[in-house]
Amino acid sequence: MDFYQHLSRRKFIRLASGAVISMSAFSFMGCGNNGNGETAANTANETATASGNNAKVFFTSDISPQGLLNVYDRIKDNLKGNIAIKLHTGEPHGPNLLPIELIRSLQSNIPNSTIVECNVLYSSPRRNTDTHRQAIETNGFTFCPVDIMDADGDINLPVPSIQERIDSGIIKNPGAHITEVPVGAHLANYDSMLVYTHFKGHAMGGFGGSLKNIGIGVASRHGKEVVHGRGWPTGKEFLERMVESGYAITNHFGSQIVYINVLKNMSVDCDCDAHGAAPVCSDIGILASTDILAIDQASIDLVYKLPPEENHDLIERIESRDGLHQLAYMAELGMGNRNYDLIQI
Fold first, then answer.
1. What is the DSSP letter of 119?
2. β-pair partners for 165
3. Neighbouring residues of 101: CB distance < 8 A, sequence distance ≥ 6
4. What pTM was estimated for this model as a whole?
């Protein structure tokens, strides 16, 4: 079945040479409810046009090195100086990792770029720097430098507005929130960041998009303990700390952070699971944006538009973990725009 037959609420726009040459009536339908009034699709602006205030999310169904370069070209002007490419290198021999040739080709076209990671909190070869480096090499990341940013400790980044929200009484349970997050100390060596994300399910977050990639992935090992909380509790308070951590990182880079989500090999499990379940969803494509909320919202909308026999397990994972609350809390903090134009290239 043609994937584009499923599009129904958000505008789908085709651009060529910077000009709008056609606009279909396609748009994305509302995508489910998590039982608390939060839907995957924000339905407030069903008639927004490309000339409005929507975020731009670029899309290609061509999941290839060239397709990746094509979407990257639309967002690359925001990147300056020393560029960190934040991605999830995965557990050794992870079953659902993205093809290494995608990032190899992209990185070679980004001057002054370095792949960056941080050590993990759970029991894994990736917990300690030396064995983490071995895991990175095992998974094929030998074509460029890989900086484990917390190899020399961490630094704290402030989370904008959280103390003010606590002081004003908006936040009722301040002990469940964070006003700063420890991140890998080497983050200070970079001027810009490209967040390259394998979009998929996640055992605690419901789904892992650009927000999870930085909210957990840029936190140092100590920072991950701060974000997760003692005992690894699940639920909205964890999700909000993850969003707050991500907010600290987006605030740190300002306009010089951009996002790519690859919707391929979308298991219900993260690449941190060495025995992740086989994907059932069809591969969809690659998204790119300068707006973290818009790209994760668009990715969710695309997943929810797949046929039920494909997306049932992933949706169950997302909603059973209140995963859509990531989007709602990002919007509440003003981290981006849930209304977007999906622009095919």
1. -
2. none
3. 65
4. 0.85
